[in-house]
Amino acid sequence: MTPPDAWTIAAVIAFLALLASLRLSVPALEGSRLAGFIAHPALLLPLVLAVPMTVGLMMTGAVPVAPLSARDMVRADYGYWAGIAALITVATAELWLLWTPSMVARRFARPESREALKGLPILNLAFGAGFLALVWNAWS
Amino acid sequence: MEGDLATTVAKAITIYGTGAGIFLLFFVISEIFLRWREGKRPLGGEGLANIVLFPFGPLLEAVILNGLLIAGMFMLYNITPLRVPVELWTLPIYFLVGEFGYYWFHRIGHEVRILWADHSIHHSAEIYDFTVNLRHTPFSTVYRFIAWGPLALLGFNPLVLVLIAMSAPAFQSLCHTERVGRFAPWFEWLFCTPSNHAVHHASNPLYIDRNYGGLLNIWDHVFGTYQRLEDHTPPVYGLTRPVNSNNPGTILLHEFRYLARDFRAAPDWRTRLNVLFGKPGKTFEADGPGKGMRPAAGLEAAE
What is this model's ipTM? Predict the structure, then answer.
């Protein structure tokens, strides 16, 4: 086991933010008290910086699209825990590209907008997948 | 060393802006898709105007003005002996201070008339949807520097400050919509959300000059400018003196025209300075106060 370092804290924060993202993304977790505690929405705050930055880094080819490749690349330069933080951050960024925004919109939709928002997850998935495929193709 | 940092700032801004741009693109496509699903014109006149105005911000800001902003911030950072280190434990401080800077950048954009002439471009949209975030203003970097410069003088690292400055508009891409309702009360109190940002965009008297926060409403609570969306006062979007046009040129020059007119007509220099730096709606106006304003919709609803 690699001893904890400053990156361990980053990995833990990234993990909690991933849990909070999953809670927003999976309707079944909406009412869970446990999920409400360990995946509190306030934990999403670091993502305001991390997600656009990760997506930007993917576009420049500095970070691979595949989370495991991102882990290996970052681990080689900065160590084990930095690799774990990168793995989680890339997975979280991809969750937000593919799914989470549409689920947030649907969950908190005004009654008059619910019908129109039903189709949004498909659009979200198509947009995110298309974007990731383009980036993958450009840098592989 | 400082030159390296400036290069890193420029690179980080480009990377962050590109990533945030992808989400903005998704929201704009979603807006077009949702309007189509709702049986509306996918891109109305105002939506098109928003898209046309988009390059004014990014082109002017990203290419010219952000370069000046970074140069100016580093100039101040280099002349001060103070340094606030960028460590894990100082990041929350940076965040709160960055939010403080954003709050004042945004507040002076509303409450100093010459700056409002620029910022009002963003507020002139009368339909509150995702495309409003494209309605950029050309000169916001100028007042960003006014608000952020003192923070650089206090030794806060410009890289982190500029990234935080950019994170608020990126986050607010999510907020420009009427389709999403209220979140949990504590979340509405603490964070910028579609409903409390709708208040910010409304021209009802109850809502004017409220909710300046970027990501958080903390500084609005501190300075008494927070206002929740009230059920009895539906928001009326746009300016109190509406543009009534989707012509991008007219939208860009709308408040500047009135500013120039009032400046020229002002009887003395003291009044002229007040026209430039006074609070919008409280300064000398050539045709008398309140002409061309829309009726105060919020008052009737609230009474």
Answer: 0.94
Closest partner CB to B167 (pick from A48, A101, A104)? A48
A117 has a chain B CB within 8 A of its CB? yes
Q: Do the domain assignments include residue A42?
A: yes
Answer yes or no: is A126 within a domain.
yes
| Best mutation target, B8, B24, B26, B216, to test chain A (most A CBs within 10 A) | B26
Is A97 within the bounds of a domain?
Answer: yes
Number of domains in chain A: 1
Rounded to a whole number, what is the distance in Å from the CA of A1 to chain B's nearest CA? 23
DSSP-assigned letter for residue B60: I
- Compute the average pLDDT of residues B102-112: 96
For residue B122, count other CB atoms closer than 10 A to its CB: 22
What whole-number distance in Å separates Cα of residue B18 and Cα of residue B219?
Answer: 28
Domain boundaries, chain B: 2-223
DSSP code of residue A43: G
Instruction: Collect all residues of chain A within an 8 Å Cβ-Cβ radius of residue B181.
Output: 108-110
A39-69, pLDDT tens digit by residue? 888 889 899 989 999 999 999 999 999 999 9
- Express each pLDDT in B23-80 by its tens digit: 999 999 999 999 999 999 888 788 889 988 888 766 676 666 777 888 889 899 999 9
A124 close to B (CB below 8 A): yes
- DSSP track, A76-132: HHH-HHHHHHHHHHHHHHHHHHHTHHHHHHHHTB-GGGHHHHTTHHHHHHHHHHHHH
Interchain contact, A110 vs B178, CB within 8 Å: yes
Q: By residue range, what is the domain housing residue A95?
A: 6-138
Amino acid B56: pLDDT: 73
Any residues with CB less than 8 A from the CB of A113 and at least 6 apart, and which? B34, B38, B178, B179, B180
Q: Residue A30's pLDDT is what? A: 74
In a domain, A102, yes or no: yes
Whether residues A59 and B182 touch (CB distance < 8 A) is answered with no
Average pLDDT for residues A115-121, to the nearest whole number? Answer: 93
* Alpha-carbon torsion (A69, A74, A79, A84), positive or negative: negative
